[in-house]
C-alpha cells in the first residue's frame, strides 16, 4: 500500500519546513481582507506561521506578515492566532 504524501510548508519566520498541520495559515483575499484560514483551503495569498507564541510575537514585532501579504495586518489577527495556540493549536 502506498503512503500518502504529507504536505510540507515553510514558516515565514523560522524558515522551517513543517507539515501543514503544524502551521497556522493567514490569508489575504482578492479584496485585501485578511483572516486566519481555519480550513487551510481558503482562496487567496497565504502565509504560514509555526504554532508557537514566540513566532507569532516575532511576526507582529517585525511586521513580517505585512510584508509577505502586502497589506496592513490588524491587531485582531494576532490576537486570534494567539488564542488558537493557547487552545491547543486545533483549528477545526
Task: Write up this protein.
This protein has a single domain (8-86), classed as Hypothetical Cytosolic Protein, Chain: A (2-Layer Sandwich), CATH 3.30.1230. The mean pLDDT is 93. It has helices at 53-62, 64-69, 75-86; strands at residues 8-10, 17-19, 23-28, 34-37, 45-50. The chain is globular. The strands form two sheets. The protein has a three-stranded antiparallel sheet. The chain starts with 7 loop residues before the first strand and ends in a 6-residue tail after the last helix. It is of the alpha+beta class and 92 residues long.
How are the secondary structure elements laid out?
Blueprint: E1 8-10, E2 17-19, E3 23-28, E4 34-37, E5 45-50, H1 53-62, H2 64-69, H3 75-86
Antiparallel strand pairs: 1-2, 3-4, 3-5
Helix pairs in contact: 1-3
What's a concise summary of this model?
This protein is α+β, with helices and mostly antiparallel strands and 92 residues long. 30% of the residues lie in helices and 24% in strands.
Residue share in β-strands: 15-25%
Q: What's the overall average pLDDT, rounded?
A: 93
**Helical content class:** 25-40%
**CATH-assigned homologous superfamily:** YlxR-like
CATH architecture: 2-Layer Sandwich
Q: How many separate structural domains?
A: 1
The third-level CATH topology is Hypothetical Cytosolic Protein, Chain: A
Amino acid at each position: 500500500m502506498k503512503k500518502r504524501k504529507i504536505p510540507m510548508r515553510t514558516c515565514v519566520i523560522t524558515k522551517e519546513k513543517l507539515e501543514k498541520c503544524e502551521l497556522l495559515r493567514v490569508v489575504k483575499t482578492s479584496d485585501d481582507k485578511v483572516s486566519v484560514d481555519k480550513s487551510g483551503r481558503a482562496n487567496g495569498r497565504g502565509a504560514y506561521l509555526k504554532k508557537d507564541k514566540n513566532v507569532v510575537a516575532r511576526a507582529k514585532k517585525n511586521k513580517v506578515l505585512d510584508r509577505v501579504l502586502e497589506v496592513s495586518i490588524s491587531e485582531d489577527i494576532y490576537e486570534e492566532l494567539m488564542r488558537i495556540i493557547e487552545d491547543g493549536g486545533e483549528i477545526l
